[in-house]
């Protein structure tokens, strides 16, 4: 959907405190949809990307926001059709939603960290028991990364994001997962934050499995994927 | 171990030495120090055991007093280990005083508070009629082992309750958020202890927790060491519980008592408690960011892993009773706990190096030699002499383990090269 937008709109829409103004306008050239039959990512070890020198992912957040706010009037232009179908945005000018995310490679998020799965299921169970509306999702190969090349090049592919409107909970999850990038998105519709290019990822079985129980397998993340209305 | 004490001795406060001394002396008191609980806090037991440890009551925190007691009572006490812990509450107040300490990451603490307030397990600990009949079916030697398991676990949870409750009370003024988290964690621990105590009633027994509170001795740790030890204790507790749960889920024929079915949700509490200590340490970077911190981090990892391994190998019938291979189970727990711990401790041990387990197994043999000497009818003086080679061997192995090339680690939030990392 992003491809069809005029630059000004693209610059304004999904929130962008992370990116420099220049990079914001261009869509990412990364096309991670390709060949993800088998994922070969080294788990549990962060890699240093020598070519990436001065990325200010976490600093300058505030000024990024201000930038977004300042150019807000441009938003008068029509954006996506999804906007209408998605109840979160009734008027084109005011209804922006902020999402908070953690992102890392899929292997880490979905395969290595079995406690993450337990935790997600625990939260979903609790929401069910208390009739709370779900406000957290797992996004496989998030579309929003296309508009955040600075973030995109810092995560292994395929990437997986945990996205929520609950900033406080995301802060906690960052503490728990640690090896993840944290960011925010200001979007016009939930779709922009929650749409993933994939619905499943396959992982190779580990060569050596020392646990006295079988590995969690299967698409455990399915209940956490965003479903459009 | 003695050499380690020397190398660190110049840099630590005298009280900190208690931890080292107690571990050293517990070698001589082998029956106490390595007869810990099967419960999640098992790993901590060795620290307090032995003549070198000091105790303190909650009321008189900070005033360490040496113990003086005979072997018999020590052994009895060890049956109900883990120990109860206390700390320097005044120092804790200083550390978390928002006025003094501007480094406190309030957002992180607020997020933890929200997580504890959510109280995921509010309605989880509800018993059903299965318990009593399952307990009745556990007969023979396994019955005694089960009772011991419940007693130790209950005591462990209860000791957490006491410590956290007191911290919650003491920090109320200086840092209400941290204080409330401690109070909510004591809620969890009380719930766990109560559930285990009800389990004991299935075996027609009960622990008098009020009596324990008054009569048990308290082991003193400086806040820094409370952080390391309690973090490890909570995280290793998570890995022990979840491993048992996942194993029994796959092998229900070993599901001989329903309490294990509760472990999956239960141990999420432990995991969260560990996260809180993670945040506490991040708020006190002086406990994470220098070479001393690295030495302590390795020391605590080693103590916790070794104690658990020796404990569990001695109780192998319990683990076999639920269908686990004790050493495989322990190594898995150690490896996973170590991986988790590497997200906060500045250094961890290279436990995935095969040499690590080989040396642990040598410790098991030496520990068994010590036990055999103790059981013999030789005169006390001769026994002491007979123990010497095993003790020397033991110290030698521990040192070798400690000096194995460590793995540098830590939270990415504290790493300077973070901007270049690819996740």
TrEMBL record, chain A:
InterPro entries listed in its UniProt record: Ycf54, Ycf54-like_sf
Protein name per Swiss-Prot or TrEMBL: Ycf54-like protein
Domain of life the protein comes from: Eukaryota
GO terms for biological process, alphabetical: chlorophyll biosynthetic process
Native organism: Physcomitrium patens
A Pfam family this chain is assigned to: Ycf54
Family that this chain belongs to: Belongs to the ycf54 family.
Automatic annotation (TrEMBL), chain B:
SUPFAM superfamilies in the record: Ferritin-like
Enzyme class: oxidoreductase
EC identifiers of the protein: 1.14.13.81
NCBIfam families (UniProt xref): AcsF, PRK13654.1
Cofactor needs: Fe cation
GO molecular function: magnesium-protoporphyrin IX monomethyl ester (oxidative) cyclase activity; metal ion binding
CC terms in the record's Gene Ontology section: chloroplast thylakoid membrane
Segments forming domain Rubrerythrin diiron-binding: 148-281
Family: Belongs to the AcsF family.
Record keyword NADP present: yes
Annotated GO biological process: chlorophyll biosynthetic process; photosynthesis
Name of the molecule in the record: magnesium-protoporphyrin IX monomethyl ester (oxidative) cyclase
This protein's pathway: Porphyrin-containing compound metabolism; chlorophyll biosynthesis
Reaction equation(s) it catalyzes: Mg-protoporphyrin IX 13-monomethyl ester + 3 NADPH + 3 O2 + 2 H(+) = 3,8-divinyl protochlorophyllide a + 3 NADP(+) + 5 H2O
HAMAP family tied to this protein: AcsF
Keyword tags: Chlorophyll biosynthesis, Iron, Metal-binding, NADP, Oxidoreductase, Photosynthesis
């Amino acid at each position: 959907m992003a491809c069809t937008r005029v630059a000004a709109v693209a610059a304004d829409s999904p929130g962008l405190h992370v990116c420099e103004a220049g990079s914001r306008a261009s869509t990412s050239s990364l096309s991670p949809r390709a060949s993800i039959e088998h994922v070969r990512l080294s788990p549990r070890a962060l890699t240093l990307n020598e070519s990436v020198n001065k990325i200010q992912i976490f600093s300058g957040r505030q000024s990024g926001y201000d930038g977004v706010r300042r150019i807000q009037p441009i938003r008068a232009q029509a954006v996506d059709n999804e906007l209408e179908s998605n109840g979160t945005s009734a008027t084109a000018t005011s209804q922006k939603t902020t999402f908070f995310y953690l992102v890392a490679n899929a292997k880490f998020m979905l395969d290595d960290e079995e406690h993450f799965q337990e935790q997600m299921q625990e939260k979903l169970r609790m929401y069910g028991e208390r009739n709370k509306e779900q406000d957290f999702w797992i996004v496989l190969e998030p579309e929003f990364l296309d508009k955040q090349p600075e973030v995109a090049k810092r995560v292994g592919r395929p990437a997986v994001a945990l996205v929520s409107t609950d900033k406080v909970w995301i802060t906690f999850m960052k503490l728990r997962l640690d090896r993840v990038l944290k960011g925010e998105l200001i979007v016009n519709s939930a779709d922009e934050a929650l749409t993933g290019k994939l619905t499943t990822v396959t992982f190779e079985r580990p060569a050596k499995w020392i646990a006295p129980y079988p590995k969690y397998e299967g698409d455990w993340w399915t209940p956490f994927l965003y479903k459009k209305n | 171990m003695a050499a380690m004490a020397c190398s660190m001795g110049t840099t630590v406060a005298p009280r900190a030495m208690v931890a080292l001394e107690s571990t050293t002396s517990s070698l001589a008191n082998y029956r106490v120090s390595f007869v810990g609980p099967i419960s999640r806090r098992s790993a901590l037991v060795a620290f307090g055991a032995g003549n070198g440890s000091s105790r303190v009551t909650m009321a008189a925190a900070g005033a360490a007093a040496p113990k003086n007691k005979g072997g018999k009572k020590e052994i009895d006490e060890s049956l109900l280990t883990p120990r109860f812990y206390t700390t320097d509450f005044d120092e804790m107040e200083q550390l978390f005083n928002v006025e003094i300490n501007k480094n406190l990451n309030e957002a992180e603490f607020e997020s933890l508070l929200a997580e504890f307030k959510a109280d995921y397990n509010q309605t989880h600990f509800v018993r059903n009629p299965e318990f009593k009949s399952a307990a009745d079916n556990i007969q023979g030697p396994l019955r005694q082992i089960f009772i011991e398991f419940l007693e130790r676990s209950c005591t462990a949870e209860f000791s957490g309750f006491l410590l956290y409750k007191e911290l919650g009370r003491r920090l109320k003024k200086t840092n209400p958020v941290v204080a409330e988290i401690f109070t909510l964690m004591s809620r969890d621990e009380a719930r766990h202890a109560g559930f285990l105590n009800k389990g004991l009633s299935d075996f027609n027994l009960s622990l008098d927790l009020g009596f324990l509170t008054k009569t048990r001795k308290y082991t003193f740790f400086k806040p820094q060491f409370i952080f390391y030890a309690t973090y490890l204790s909570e995280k290793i507790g998570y890995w022990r519980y979840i491993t048992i749960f996942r194993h029994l889920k796959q092998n229900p024929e070993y599901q001989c008592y329903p309490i294990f079915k509760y472990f999956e949700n239960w141990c999420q509490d432990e995991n969260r408690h560990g996260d809180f200590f993670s945040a506490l340490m991040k708020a006190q970077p002086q406990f994470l960011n220098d070479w001393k911190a690295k030495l302590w981090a390795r020391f605590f990892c080693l103590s916790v892993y070794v104690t658990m391994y020796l404990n569990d190998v001695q109780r192998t019938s319990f683990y076999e009773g639920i269908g686990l291979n004790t050493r495989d189970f322990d190594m898995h727990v150690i490896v996973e706990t170590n991986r988790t711990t590497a997200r906060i401790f500045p250094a961890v041990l290279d436990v995935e190096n095969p040499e690590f387990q080989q040396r642990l197994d040598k410790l098991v043999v030496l520990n068994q030699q010590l036990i055999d000497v103790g059981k013999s009818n030789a005169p006390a003086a001769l026994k002491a002499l007979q123990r010497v080679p095993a003790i020397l061997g033991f110290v030698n192995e521990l040192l070798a383990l400690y000096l194995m090339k460590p793995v540098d680690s830590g939270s990415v939030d504290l790493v300077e090269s973070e901007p270049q990392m690819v996740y």
